[in-house]
Amino acid sequence: MSEVIDGTSDVFDGAALERPCGGDEPLRLMAVHAHPDDESSKGAATMARYVADGVEVLVVTCTGGERGDILNPAMDRPEVKADIGKVREAEMARAREILGVGQRWLGFVDSGFPEGDPLPPLPEGCFALEPLETATEPLVRAVREFRPHVMLTYDEKGGYPHPDHVKCHEVSVEAFEAAGDPERYPGTGDPWQPLKLYYHMTFSKGRILALHSAMEKAGLESPYGDWLKRFEEEGDEPARWEVTTRVPCADHFETRDQALLAHATQIDPNGFWFVVPLDVQREAWPTEDYHLARSLVDTELPEDDLFAGIREKVCL
Fold this sequence. Notes:
Blueprint: E1 2-5, E2 17-20, E3 28-33, H1 38-41, H2 44-52, E4 56-63, H3 78-82, H4 84-99, E5 102-108, H5 132-146, E6 150-153, H6 163-178, E7 196-200, H7 205-217, H8 225-234, E8 245-248, H9 253-262, H10 278-284, E9 287-295, H11 311-314
Parallel strand pairs: 3-4, 3-6, 4-5, 6-7
Antiparallel strand pairs: 1-2, 7-9, 8-9
């Protein structure tokens, strides 16, 4: 017996996918992100590694990124600005092709990043202002259709305080906790309980210090000066979340960078993301890192696999 997920535009990469049950059931990973490009800057090499290993991976994108600034001077053109939503949709299509993942849009409107003192109000109808249940319902539907064993999202601060990132955290946690309960979110499919929920720890202090040191050792100028100043100001203040899980994925850093470059409105090929050579990155920090926030299976920390404790249950 198998479940077939219909290949419509809002589902899985435009093709029907078989979901074998029983002992042949594949592992499935869902990464929930706020905007197109977030999936390529956070956890992309991890996803590429698991795709190569035969894991089914789905990126869920909460908004269309319509209010994002154009950060690549070469793309700062009137015709791009005039159709930024469609441009970013096309960029996302290219990035998911490079990563080999499926992707689903939740259809909410980008909230923009408020700046100023005092901060301006968020625009009416944006994702960050949606009631929690309204914002979570389509994600619960996606969870119940795709049936992930593992979910990835941001911590409660969103990784950085963009209102859409914070909202993404809130709906991800709500969906993780609600999707397995048949009494919650009726009409969104049969219950499915993911087994583990992780937060991205992409820009941990340890990683930044290691990359900075490696650049100096190689005789290269480090791009992390401002980060070091901030660390000095923070002193020995402990991190809010510890890194529990380091996924080896250095062989897929180049794929990650190609996916980043696909988001041409957001990523300057001459910018920050590409200052540290790949060989330096692979030597200094060959993993992408996570905090295990929820687990319904026994696992021993630290981990080197998001599916630790799950493989034995699913792939016997």
